Amino acid sequence: MSYNSSHNHDRILNDQRGLTRRAVLKTSVGIGLAAALNPLSAWADALAQPSAMLMRAIPSSGEKIPVIGVGTARRYENAASAEDRAPLREVLRRLPEIGGKLIDTAPAYGIAETVVGDLVSEIGNRDKLFFATKVGVRSGDRAGIVAQMEESMRRLKTDRIDLMQIWNLIAVPETLPILREWKAAGRIRYIGITTSNERQYEPLLKIMETERLDFIQVDYAVDSREAEARIFPTAQDKGIAVLTNLPFGRSRVFEKVSGRPVPDWAREIDCATWAQVFLKFIVSNSAVTCAIPGTAKLGYLEDNQGAARGKMPDEAMRKRIVAALSAVG
């Protein structure tokens, strides 16, 4: 599938996600129903306690970051009007207030970098956030690579990027030395590589084995667990932090449980919604440093960030979550 075809398909699925997730939230019971109908109220006390949020260390430095971040693909990439940006502004304002930090974006996400940069500049909370973006210049031309990273800094209105990632393994031999130069100069703090394609796992593993990286980013969801066996062990062995994208499988997992209430056993891991169940499955894996669900609404932010608090699934519960989704899939 071409990038444009995939992009359009993803957009359709993402547009469905809002309806699907609303439908799923409305089926929640007890505190789950309260959180679904009024997440700001139901989770206010818990979210007001940043110390309760699960943090994970970046192995190369020991710096700790919250295990749930914010992804900006799709919803941020066309937000040109004040009306479109209003809910995104609230997400970016509220994120650090409830203990969140990491925002992942990319030049390939339309105007997402510009949207994030403009809104964070307006809010004035850049110092409380962790900016992760990407670089991918297929020609491997040094001038082009440098120009794209300079443009990312301009769009994000910052003089330092926390994490610069090589997007989808594009021109790694040409790009990685430049990232190291920028890191040495203090213009970026961490370097990494991303992919959301399992066919790139073998070349990614080779790079992880031979190059010093701070981060990798791969896809990982309850029903998409290939990275567990193929990528995570090497990341832990080499001391590489792991970001995970597509935690809801582009709405796939919500579609599978649509109309079904959150099981009673979810209370055992302090989950009020399906989103929290799915996210806790991901971040309960010790190899995962941070999951980055796309987040364009305040209610979704509050819901997602709730997954970073409370009891986490043990191995038996993780198997139970997989079985529950498999039973309806």
> Ends: how far apart?
24 Å
Low-confidence stretches: 1-19, 27-44, 46-51
Strand numbers in spatial order across the main sheet: 3-4-5-6-7-8-9-10
Q: Rounded to an integer, what's the Rg over CA atoms?
A: 19 Å
Structure annotation, total helices:
15
Helix content: 40-55%
SS class:
alpha/beta
Shape: globular
Largest sheet: 8 strands, parallel
Strand percentage, roughly? 5-15%
Average pLDDT value? Answer: 88
Helices and strands, in N-to-C order? HHHHEEEHEHEHEHEHEHHEHHEHH
* Oligomeric organization of the protein chains: single chain
Give a brief rundown of this model.
With 329 residues, this protein is an alpha/beta fold. 47% of the residues lie in helices and 13% in strands. It has an 8-stranded parallel beta sheet.
Features:
329 residues; alpha/beta; eight-stranded parallel sheet; two-stranded antiparallel ribbon; 10 strands; 47% helix; globular
Write up this protein.
The chain is of the alpha/beta class and 329 residues long. 47% of the residues lie in helices and 13% in strands. It has 15 helices and 10 strands. It has helices at residues 3-26, 31-37, 39-42, 44-47, 82-97, 112-123, 142-156, 172-184, 201-210, 226-230, 232-238, 252-257, 274-283, 298-305, 315-328; strands at residues 55-57, 64-66, 70-71, 102-104, 130-135, 161-166, 188-194, 215-219, 241-245, 290-291. The strands form 2 sheets. It has an 8-stranded parallel sheet. It has a two-stranded antiparallel sheet with strand order 1-2. Helix 8 links the parallel strand 6 and strand 7. It is globular. The relative contact order is 0.17.
